[in-house]
Amino acid sequence: VIAVCPKGMGPSVRRLYEQGKTVNGAGINSSFGVHQDKTGTATEIALGWGIALGSPFMFETTLTDEYKSDIYGERGILLGGVHGMVEALF
Question: Which residues does the annotation mark as catalytic?
Answer without folding.
Answer: 7, 70, 74
